[in-house]
From TrEMBL:
It comes from Apostasia shenzhenica. Keywords: Disulfide bond, Glycoprotein, Hydrolase, Protease, Signal, Thiol protease. Residues 120-335 form the Peptidase C1A papain C-terminal domain. Coiled coil: none annotated. Gene3D superfamilies: Cysteine proteinases, Granulin. Residues 1-21 form the signal peptide. This is Oryzain alpha chain. SUPFAM superfamilies: Cysteine proteinases, Granulin repeat. It comes from the Eukaryota.
Length: 442
């Protein structure tokens, strides 16, 4: 793409190539280029790169100013340092408070947490007890509510059964559409309600995350690996009850996660500033104390480049009933008393009345006449896209077939997948089966 004269002048000013450029300007661009390499950043045009550099420089000044002060936490130029606060808010949050219904409308196993007279430990970290899965990344999809909900279900499932299973946020995003709205936002209570009504939820491995909304894969709804029996809300603005709940299991909470300090958080005990306008969902996975300051341990869903490998310490016991960032205002957790269903034997995939493919395969038509399929092929990918040449298929998250290059893409000429390998890999040649002759014809 040719540069305009103005873009060329701006590029030479901000990204000088000669040795005669000022040392300060060269140092600034070196920092930005190094940051781009570290986080794998690339931009579609020089104009976009200049705009990102400008935002980056503003965030860099903000980080340096904060870290020069006397704060209990520090900031860093993390993977979100090229985003303005507004851009960040529109892409990385997703708590949908506008979706809230009355308690009677929610139903589905809903209860209210009851206080206990038993004492709680001074500190607890559910990560150390093996009840917390790896940090995940919601991407540019407002699905924080789904990650908070699955994290809480993963925790109580480990505590109840001894097995830690990573669960599918994508199934919630795609299929939980009664009250929640996928990447446009949702609430953890409704996610729990959906799992109760569906009699379970699938695994991350079987129904993997795609950072976007797709049609619900309905044949996976019966892949009920982990179940819950209900869910409970913790009375709002009651930190004592929240502490009791976290002492028993990881708990989902709503917070305000849209402040610049939260966006660029690196380590230490976060104290704000932040409002109590809830717009993000996270998971409390423990609590503790350090140098006389009590804190919560939060698991976020922005990947491991944010915070302390994806986690944050947030101050507690500050005397504010709402809690810092409103953390005491909207807390809930799943209830599990029943065992999980036995693992089902893999069922073959039905193509037609007389034809089947092995479990985990996709049926693709290989011969069609007058709109009717007379021969089926088996693609060795689950929920795959059948290419129009009737010989190849692509993964569901790379749905565009290019039969000339034998590659699959996400569209927009973004061919990022490796060359296809017959019957394995991504661009897969499938075997055609004629059910009348019982012959393999490819």
């Amino acid at each position: 793409m040719p540069r305009s004269p103005i873009a060329t002048l701006l590029f030479l000013f901000f990204f000088p190539a000669s040795c005669s450029s000022s040392p300060a300007a060269a140092a600034n661009t070196d920092i930005f280029e190094s940051w781009c390499r570290r986080h794998g950043k690339s931009y579609a045009s020089e104009a976009e790169k200049l705009a990102r550099f400008h935002v980056f420089e503003g965030n860099r000044a903000f980080v340096e100013s904060h870290n020069a002060g006397n704060s209990s936490y520090s900031l860093d130029l993390n993977a979100f340092a090229d985003l303005s606060v507004h851009e960040f808010r529109t892409s990385r949050l997703g708590l949908g408070l506008g979706l809230r219904l009355s308690d009677s409308a929610v139903g589905g196993g809903h209860t209210v947490f009851q206080a206990s007279d038993s004492s709680v430990p001074d500190a607890i970290d559910w990560r150390q007890k093996g009840a917390v899965t790896q940090v995940k990344d919601q991407g540019s999809c407002g699905a924080c509510w789904a990650f908070s909900a699955t994290g809480a279900i993963e925790g109580i499932n480990k505590i109840s059964t001894g097995s830690l299973v990573s669960l599918s946020e994508q199934e919630l995003v795609d299929c939980d559409q009664t009250y929640n709205t996928g990447c446009s936002g949702g609430l953890m209570d409704y996610a729990y309600k959906w799992v109760v009504q569906n009699h379970g939820i699938d695994t991350e491995q079987d129904y993997s995350y795609r950072s976007g909304e797709r049609n619900c894969i309905k044949n996976k709804l019966n892949h009920r690996v982990v179940t819950i029996d209900g869910y409970a809300d913790i009375p709002p603005n009651n930190e004592k009850l929240l502490l009791q709940a976290v002492a028993s299991q990881p708990v989902s909470v709503g917070i305000c996660g849209s402040e610049r300090e939260f966006q660029l958080y690196s380590k230490g005990i976060f104290t704000g500033p932040c409002s109590t306008a809830l717009d993000h969902a996270v998971l409390i996975v423990g609590y503790g104390s350090e140098n006389g300051h009590d804190y919560w341990i939060l698991k976020n869903s922005w990947g491991t480049s944010w915070g302390m490998d994806g986690f944050m310490y947030m101050i507690r016991n500050r005397g504010n009933p709402l809690g810092v960032c409103g953390i005491n205002m909207l807390a809930s957790y799943p209830i599990k008393t029943s065992p999980n269903p036995p693992s089902p034997s893999p069922s073959p995939t039905k193509c037609s009345l007389f034809s089947y493919c092995p479990a985990g395969n996709t049926c693709c038509c290989t011969r069609r006449f007058l709109g009717l399929c007379f021969s089926w092929g088996c693609c060795e990918l689950d929920s795959a896209i059948c290419c129009k040449d009737h010989r190849y298929c692509c993964p569901y998250n790379y749905p565009v077939c290019d039969n000339k290059t034998k590659r699959c893409s996400k569209g927009n000429n973004n061919f990022t997948i490796v060359e296809g390998i017959e019957r394995t890999g991504f661009f897969v040649k499938f075997r055609s089966w004629n059910p009348l002759l019982d012959l393999w014809d490819v």
